[in-house]
Amino acid sequence: xxxxxxxxxxxxxxxxxxxxxxxxxxxxxxxxxxxxxxxxxxxxxxxxxxxxxxxxxxxxxxxxxxxxxxxxxxxxxxxxxxxxxxxxxxxxxxxxxxxxxxxxxxxxxxxxxxxxxxxxxxxxxxxxxxxxxxxxxxxxxxxxxxxx
Length: 148
What we know:
The protein is mainly β. Helices cover about 15% and strands about 45% of the residues. The chain has a single domain, classed as Lipocalin.
């Protein structure tokens, strides 16, 4: 009887742990801005237990020919100024806790500045993504919708 109780307890703890971990991964996928200028598209992915976002598209990321990606010429790190803006991982270190993604950073290549970020999934297709300096009260929220 004790052995059966032990096995059932382990099973319940395992199921509860799995159920808690699952919602965090809902951010993974491709998202695009709804109400921002420039128009943006990110791919969110997980590495270890953190979430990251790669810049797939920005309406201002190409030169006048519309094909050649602009360089990251405003980057504070002079060694990175020659890299392309296309495909850079500019959202880093988001952690999932209590229904929010917090503790992350956003690098804005148009300004060469870093911001703190947090994100909240409103549902499986909509996300509020907030960039700020210091306190989240002093920032800007961008609405994103899931592409895939």
